[in-house]
Every structure is written in structure tokens, then in C-alpha cells.
Amino acid sequence: xxxxTTGDGSPTLVSPRYREGxxxxxxxRTQAERLFATxxxxxxxxxxxxxxxxxxxxxxxxxxxxxxxxxxGTLFYLGLEPEPVPVAVLDRVLSGxxxxxxxxxxxxxxxxxxxxxxxxxxxxxxxVRFVSLDRAELPPGWADAVxxxxxxxxxxxxxxxxxxxxxxxxxxxxxGVLVSYTVAGWVRRNLTRLGLVPDRVPAYGGKRHWLxxxxxxxxxxxxxxxxxxxx
Length: 231
Known about the structure:
Helix content is 26%, strand content 27%. By secondary structure, it is of the alpha/beta class. The strands form two sheets. An eight-stranded mixed beta sheet has the order 6-7-5-4-8-9-11-10, with helices on both faces. Strand 6 (117-121) and strand 7 form a beta hairpin. Helix 1 crosses helix 2 and helix 3 (87-94) packs antiparallel against helix 4 (103-111). Residues 221-231 have low confidence and may be disordered.
């Protein structure tokens, strides 16, 4: 895997399988802080509950923990990662991110065993499952936010199937939000059919928009007759 230093000085990786970076070239840490921790609303909640689809390198978790811990709250976090990177590679990335001091080392020790794990510490409870979304069991109506962060719909379309999106939506509480870096029209249309109201919000760097979709209070996923897919 190729290590890449992004525009804000934080590192990321380029996946040889998907031929994409785990984070944008403009800034891995910046995206984690601005899109996932902030636009999701997690940075404002006292004790937020988050599900991340595509835990990846753990940067979104560490950025979220840093902002929640600064307010004295507790972050409850469930991450799904079907293709974990080797621990030595993860170490190279996290050592350059400088997020949530001390927790990267604890994450690496748990990761090294190669098994699902639960990690607790100051201001957080983290569970990581090395499984794909389609095979995972998620707590219904539990999450304040879903970070939907697999590789792009173009590179990894299976991760963005209607069935997978529906599974993620079912884990949201009414009023909860799903955030992602893609604003693909067919993804937004499928989220609308699942009971969410998607918005394109200003992004950072090379992207014009990110996606924030809110589950309307009292609604839930519908079962539409068809699925919107890319042409």
C-alpha cells in the first residue's frame, strides 16, 4: 500500500484494490473533523452514538473522540471494517495524525490480534468488527449518526447497494443523520426512498459538496419497488 501525505500534513493510504485513497488528497484529518465529526452533529452531542461503515484507518473515530472528549462527553462507536490493513501499515498512518493522544497506541494493540474487539478508555467505548455491512448485525434505531465511508460508489458499488443503505438507515434513530463524501444522484435518490432527507453541503478542498441525510422523525425505511443505480 502506498502512503500519501495529504494537504493538511496528515497521512493516508492508496488502496491497490480500489485504486483510491482512503481519504482525499486535500486532507485526511480535515475531512474527518469537518465532515464526520462536525457536519454529522456528533461534535455537539453530549454522548453521541456512531456507526461507521468502513472504519478504514480509524481517523474518523479518533477525530470524533477528540472533539467529544474535549467537552467531557462519552463517545459510543461501532466500526465495521471488512478489509483491515496490516497493523504495521496502520501504525505508519496513525503516528502522523496526532489525534486523541494515547488512543492510537491502544487501538494498534487491539488491532494486532486480528479479531473483533471492544476497547474502552477516557470518554469512549469502541467496538470494531471485521465484517462487511451485509453480514453485520446492527442495533435498530440506535445511532445518532452513521458515517458511510467505504470506497466510492464507482470503485466499490456493492457497498452502496440499496440493501446495504437500508441496513444502515435502520440503525439510525429518528432525527439521526447519515453523512458521506459522495453526493451521487442515485445514492441520494435511494436515501430518499429509505426515509431520509438528503442535502448537499459545502465541502473542502477539491470537492464542492458532501452529503448529509437526515432521517425524518417518525419515519423509517420504505421498501421501494426498484433501486436507483449508476448508469
